[in-house]
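Quick one, T. Sequence first:
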Amino acid sequence: MGLIPDDMLLDLLDLALSADAVNTVRCTRELLDLGVDALSLVAQLASLITNILGGSFEIHREMRSKGGFFRRDLCR
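Structure tokens:
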């Protein structure tokens, strides 16, 4: 139980936004197998999304260079 690191949540969010259903389910399953409560996972993911949309969470360059959804430069 406990807090899930932001980088793991960001990886899960990146997979979900990239429409990679198989790997999204795998990543979620891995988190749940580690003992993370499903309600806690959803709450932390919702909090992360809120922080990203609110501008209080900076997505680091390492995440952008990994590929996936956050690699895209949507705001030009």
